[in-house]
């Protein structure tokens, strides 16, 4: 009986390794990078159209160092995070200002997104792995397939849209 448990456990471990490898080959990651809320601010942006959000772009130490040095190629290990919210009017602020002019972040919108640089692991997508989490869970492959084709248009900046806002 003990030997059967060991065989089952070994099978699960090997199977799990194959799943993680397959995800890596597709440019996916199944876990939210630890400590991402402690990343530093790269910039903020307002997206109109179908996205219709306000967003903060954050970077880990490697990404921030790259931005601050003015480089356009990011090293392996750089992580860029995008947090987005609905843009909603602030009635409370507008009352103080005496007119309709203030907007604030509302509910989270369009998932929590990450770009993770690993030139070898994600060679097929310009060296970047793309991932998104909705309600803390990774999105399906179909949603991620739209990431790299959009970023290809900015290949001259290592596939990164956001400029550093000093």
What are the key terms here?
single chain; 29% helix; alpha+beta; 166 residues; disordered N terminus; Chalcone isomerase; seven-stranded antiparallel sheet
Query: Under the CATH scheme, which architecture would be assigned?
Result: 3-Layer(bba) Sandwich
Derived structural class: alpha+beta
Determine the mean pLDDT. Answer: 85
Helix content: 25-40%
Number of domains: 1
What is the strand content? 25-35%
At the fourth CATH level, what is the homologous superfamily?
A: Cytochrome P460
How widely separated are the two ends? 63 Å
What is the overall number of helices?
5
What is the N-to-C succession of helices and strands?
A: HEEHEHEEEEHH
Major pleated sheet: 7 strands, antiparallel
Number of strands: 7
What is the third-level CATH name, the topology?
Chalcone isomerase
CATH class: Alpha Beta
Catalogue the unreliable spans. Answer: 1-27
- The Cα radius of gyration reads 20 Å
Structure description:
With 166 residues, this protein is of the alpha+beta class. It is 29% helix and 28% strand. It has a single domain, classed as Chalcone isomerase. A hairpin with a 5-residue loop joins β1 and β2. The chain is globular. The N terminus is likely disordered.
Task: Characterize this entry briefly.
With 166 residues, the chain is an alpha+beta fold. It is built from five helices and seven strands.
């Amino acid at each position: 009986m003990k030997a059967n448990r060991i065989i089952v456990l070994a099978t699960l471990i090997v199977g799990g390794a194959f799943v993680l490898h397959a995800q890596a080959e597709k440019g996916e990651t199944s876990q939210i990078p630890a400590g991402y809320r402690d990343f530093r601010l790269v910039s903020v942006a307002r997206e109109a159209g179908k996205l219709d959000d306000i967003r903060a772009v954050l970077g880990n130490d490697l990404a921030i160092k790259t931005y601050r040095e003015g480089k356009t190629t990011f090293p392996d290990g750089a992580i860029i995070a995008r947090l987005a919210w609905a843009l909603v009017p602030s009635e409370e602020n507008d009352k103080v200002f005496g007119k309709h002019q203030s907007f604030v972040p509302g509910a989270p919108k369009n998932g929590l997104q990450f770009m993770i640089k690993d030139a070898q692991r994600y060679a097929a997508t310009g060296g970047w792995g793309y991932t998104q989490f909705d309600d803390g869970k990774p999105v399906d492959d179909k949603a991620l397939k739209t990431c790299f084709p959009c970023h290809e248009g900015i290949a001259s900046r290592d596939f990164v849209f956001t400029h550093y806002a000093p």
